[in-house]
Structure formats: C-alpha cells, structure tokens
Amino acid sequence: MYHFIVNKVSGNGKGLSIWKDVEKILAVTQLNYQVFFTNYPSHATEISKKINNGVIIVIGGDGTIHEVINGLIKSNIPMGIIAAGSGNDFARALNIPMNAAEAFESILAGNERTVDVGRIGDKSCATVIGIGFDGQVAQTVNASKTKKWMKFFRPGKMSYIISVFKVLFDYKPANISIKIDDKTEEMMDVWLVAVANFPYYAGGMAICPNAKGNDGYFELCVVHGMSKLQFIRTFPGVFKGKHVSHPSIKMLTGKQIEISSSSTMIVHGDGEIIGETPIKINMEENALRVV
Ligand SMILES: Nc1ncnc2c1ncn2[C@@H]1O[C@H](COP(=O)(O)OP(=O)(O)OP(=O)(O)O)[C@@H](O)[C@H]1O
Predict the structure, then answer these.
(1) pTM for the complete prediction?
(2) 146 C-alpha vs ligand 1 centroid, how far in Å?
(3) Strands 266-269 vs 218-224: parallel, antiparallel or unpaired
(4) Whose CA is nearest to atom 1 of ligand 1?
(5) What is the CATH number assigned to the segment(s) 2-111?
(6) Domain limits, the chain
(7) Cβ distance 130 to 201 under 8 Å?
(8) Omega before residue 278 within 30° of 0, cis
(9) In the predicted model, what is the mean pLDDT of the chain?
C-alpha cells in the first residue's frame, strides 16, 4: 500500500499540481494507494504517525518531509519523495529526480537506502540544523509573505536571500561554548553554526559540502570573527561550497554536539524553527529508510 501525504501549498502550489500529475499516472496503474492532504502545519506528522504499513510518499518540500520524518521515525516505514517544495534540499542531496514522473518511477523501482538523522530532544532532522544567524533567517523566511509574490520568480532562493539581508542589518554574533564529542572549545563572535547531515539548505546552498548523510557523522560549519562586509562578500560562495577555506570559517566533524551561547541563538532544523540555545544534537545512524 502506498500512502501519499500531499502538501498542496508547498512550492507555492506546486504540491497540488504535482499531485494532479501523479493522480493521472495512478489512474492507469493497478497500485493500491490512499492520499492524505495536509491542512495545517504539523498535520503531516499526525498523519504519518497513524500509518503502520507500506510506503509513505511525500509530495512536498523540506518542511513537509521534516514533519513526516518526525511521525514515522519509530515505525521503520520507508519514505519516498516527490519533490514539490521551493528548496527541495533533501531530494537534491539524495539525487532524487526533480521531475515528478521520474521520481515516482524511481520510488516504484524500490531502490532503498538508509540514511542518518540528527536528533534534538524529541525532534529528528534530515538535512541541516542551523544555529544563530541561520535560525533567525529561517524564522524570517517562514514569516515572510515574499514567497507568495515571488512565485513567478525562483521562490525559495529569492525569499531566502531577501531574508538574509533583512536579518544581517541588525544581527549580533554571540560567544559560544561548543562541545563536539569529548572536546570543548570556546569561540568568539559566532555568526552561525550549521550542523549538517546532508550538504544543502536554503534551496541549494552547500553549507557543509562534505556531509554524507550515511556515514554516522555531522559536518559542522562555524562562521566566526567576521565583519558584516566580509560576511556579505563570503555569502555568494556558499552556493558552490567555496566558503570553506575562508580563515573565519571552521569546518569540523562529530557525532554529539552541545552548544551554549552568551545570548540566545535561534535553532532551525530542515528550515523549521525547533528551539534555541542551549542545545544538544545527537547523531542517529541509519534511522531512516528512503526509497
Ligand atoms: N494546508 C496547509 N496550509 C498552510 N500551511 C501548510 C499546510 N500544510 C502544510 N503546511 C506547512 O507548509 C510549510 C511549507 O511546506 P514545505 O516546506 O513542504 O514547502 P516549501 O516551503 O515550499 O518547500 P521547501 O521547504 O523545500 O523550501 C510546512 O512548514 C508545513 O507545516
């Protein structure tokens, strides 16, 4: 049995149009399926918690995938993805075709892989957990109306870039204490810490280009001691992962991360706000089956 979870509003309505295309394919196959539409934030978690057999197929973006993962993580049910969001960073990292028919075909072919997830308290995150500047940007993006009027543009990336500049205006870096496995380090003037299971966030920014998602390790990117001007200059390089050699950027790896900070830093996971510092992040190896 295939259980579709469709977020009609993902990707500014792409979710609905992709579902209509998939429905046409389903009409000519003999597949046993049912469909659920999400009606409000976190509905996808409620729906996926109730499914206890078959395969869940998400038609949505990273936010919907995040919600589904948090519903199915204990059930061992495999998840397929037909990308319909603005960013689609999880699908990108797993080389899932962006074309809906091809993605569906690949799900039906059943090539399964197991991936790691990051865990903060009772929340599981598939892609990147961002602390500080990133968290504030995610909060601004989610609150922003720009995604709506940008829909004829490149919605995910544009609304992200606009929010980056809004937050940049009065963002104040913090001093942090970061414990990675057994080693603790104090770092001054920290803009952000990205703890990545997979490389991308914000619609294709390769913040941690070497994150593998199946090796049991996070790759971390810490941006510290940078002026605003340096930050602006370095920012475009992130789309291609070129920022990693900057002297104010430290790339690290680890499995268990603890961060406390001199002032509150907002935390997002997969682009959804999940809390603030202090936080503990654990690696959960092979926690998720993806078809
Ligand atoms: N019916 C609904 N009305 C409003 N919001 C919804 C509804 N169903 C789900 N949501 C919310 O929509 C949000 C955005 O979904 P999603 O992240 O999948 O799309 P996106 O933002 O376009 O894509 P991406 O995260 O890949 O950029 C999610 O946080 C989810 O909670």
Answers:
(1) 0.93
(2) 14
(3) unpaired
(4) 39
(5) 3.40.50.10330
(6) 2-111, 125-283
(7) yes
(8) yes
(9) 93
